[in-house]
Amino acid sequence: MDGSRGFLLSRDDTMHSKEYLAQDLAPTILGVTGFFCFLSLIVVALRLYARAFMVRRLGWEDLLIFITALFVLGCWICFVGEATTGVLGHHMETVTIPQYELFLLWTFPHQLFISLGNGTFKCSVGFFLIRVGTKKWGRWVLYCLMSFIAISSLVYGSTLFWSCIPLRANWHFDEQKDAKMISTKVWMGLAMWNAVANMLTDSILAVWPLPIVLKMRVSTFKKAALVVSLSLGWLAVVCCAVKTWAMWNYFTVSDKYYKDLYFFLCFLEMSVGTIAASVPLLQPLVKRFRFCSSARDDSGKVVLMPLPAVMPVTPPQAKMRRPIITWTGMGFTSFQDGEEYRYDDPERSGSSAPVNTTSGLIIGHASRNRSQVSEYLGIPYAQPPLGELRFAAPQQYSSDDIFNASSFSPDCPANLPPPSTYPGLTASGQRIYLNFADQVGNPQSEDCLTLNIWTKATTHKSPKAVLLWIHGGRFTLPGTHSLFYQGQYLADQEDVIVVTINQRVNIFGYPGAPGETQNLGLLDHRMAVEWVRDNIAGFGGDPHRITLFGQSAGGAATDFYAYAWKEDPIVAGLVSHS
């Protein structure tokens, strides 16, 4: 072979004008691919910042999307290298053999990055859908789909290494005479199978969230916003479909690198898929800038300050304790039958490991003002005391579902007394009194038998002591959803786990009906203690070092507990305040 130009074309294909031969699409190809490359990198960087520093929770989906971003960058670097050879964006009539050999050397890692990158971004989407899914069968389907994607990507990528032996014969024509190479037909078959598999998996991942959207308890506007966000995934499907046509031309058309449609569309599928997988997870950044204003601190530095907000009080709905996925602004959320739980709220999320319990898989979050403390709120420890269970002893509750413990449950029903008037009480004192005594604004529901857990990770391996709190209130006032009963401060300062429990009060807890079960609230305490004994080890607690303590009516209840369960107290200690 010599270095003559147009060596791959027939004589009829080489009869073109000088203007035609001087055409150069390389700057356009590099400009468009560079735009999508750096847009992908920026979106992924924002996603990782939000996940690592605001939500403080990184998962497999984040690691895989980071790896995909590296593949996207690698592909663009390959485009740049291919352009420097004088082949990319030029007609083959102008290409010499040495140029083409160097170009083929660049296409080898390019194809490998595309094959692996398309697999990693799809697996990232799969892990995200598993995280927000609610059905076991759905999670298993996604696991199987991701396994298929991973195996297909690895197998197709590996063909690049064994398709030609020795490998260097791929880009050294003088060694191809004695090389062992698979035929063009086999390559076309493998490429067609890969294209069909890509279209199928892209379509499944794009369709999968739509039933979740249709079931959301949100406005039509929010549903439309989410559909638009998820529609980015369909752009990857379109790119994949057009890429299949371009792939056929890649094997049948000689002047294929002038527009380089196949590699361009492969890159577009991967970069658009990376962006589509990251946009729904930017909600913490959107929320921070949407609900903050700027101000200057004492040193003159500009800082973000949260805007004041009014929290509407909505009547509680009857709980079914089954998570329902929804959408809030730019983030996936779950509605626990009226109570909202966010997956990616920077103020209600964090590095809290899910815990398997008898009440299901409990998903926690970092405490709002003690980020090192994980809190798990509103965990049901007994069946809802509704219907025939009203005025009955508490019954054990068990579930295999995922429970997003991101919000306090409603207070147990109570007849709140009118606020008392104290002469000379300051405005701040009145506000404190209202929050403490009346818990103004909290929703109420008979489905209220829940508990809350605060725990902090430590370096030592021994389990922690557990403090289990019974609130006061004359056995008539609810509940644990109070600024005064939040356990993150104690859990942060001391090496303990803090648990607070809701209990039935007033007529629902102490009906006094002749011939019926009495002191239901005290029985609720026992059921909560049994739940803590059975499950606290998963939170890092020691079931043999539980201390029951309470204040006012809670202190009296602690005394009653000591007398009622003296044969099998379960707890190791009791502390009665006031």
From TrEMBL:
<keyword id="KW-0472">Membrane</keyword>
<feature type="transmembrane region" description="Helical">
    <location>
        <begin position="261"/>
        <end position="282"/>
    </location>
</feature>
<keyword id="KW-1133">Transmembrane helix</keyword>
<feature type="transmembrane region" description="Helical">
    <location>
        <begin position="62"/>
        <end position="83"/>
    </location>
</feature>
<feature type="transmembrane region" description="Helical">
    <location>
        <begin position="191"/>
        <end position="214"/>
    </location>
</feature>
<dbReference type="Pfam" id="PF20684">
    <property type="entry name" value="Fung_rhodopsin"/>
</dbReference>
<feature type="transmembrane region" description="Helical">
    <location>
        <begin position="25"/>
        <end position="50"/>
    </location>
</feature>
<dbReference type="GO" id="GO:0016787">
    <property type="term" value="F:hydrolase activity"/>
</dbReference>
<dbReference type="InterPro" id="IPR029058">
    <property type="entry name" value="AB_hydrolase_fold"/>
</dbReference>
<comment type="similarity">
    <text>Belongs to the type-B carboxylesterase/lipase family.</text>
</comment>
<feature type="transmembrane region" description="Helical">
    <location>
        <begin position="226"/>
        <end position="246"/>
    </location>
</feature>
<dbReference type="InterPro" id="IPR050309">
    <property type="entry name" value="Type-B_Carboxylest/Lipase"/>
</dbReference>
<keyword id="KW-0378">Hydrolase</keyword>
<dbReference type="InterPro" id="IPR019826">
    <property type="entry name" value="Carboxylesterase_B_AS"/>
</dbReference>
<dbReference type="Pfam" id="PF00135">
    <property type="entry name" value="COesterase"/>
</dbReference>
<feature type="domain" description="Carboxylesterase type B">
    <location>
        <begin position="353"/>
        <end position="562"/>
    </location>
</feature>
<feature type="transmembrane region" description="Helical">
    <location>
        <begin position="103"/>
        <end position="128"/>
    </location>
</feature>
<keyword id="KW-0812">Transmembrane</keyword>
<feature type="transmembrane region" description="Helical">
    <location>
        <begin position="140"/>
        <end position="162"/>
    </location>
</feature>
<protein>
    <recommendedName>
        <fullName>Carboxylic ester hydrolase</fullName>
        <ecNumber>3.1.1.-</ecNumber>
    </recommendedName>
</protein>
<dbReference type="InterPro" id="IPR049326">
    <property type="entry name" value="Rhodopsin_dom_fungi"/>
</dbReference>
<feature type="domain" description="Rhodopsin">
    <location>
        <begin position="46"/>
        <end position="288"/>
    </location>
</feature>
<dbReference type="InterPro" id="IPR002018">
    <property type="entry name" value="CarbesteraseB"/>
</dbReference>
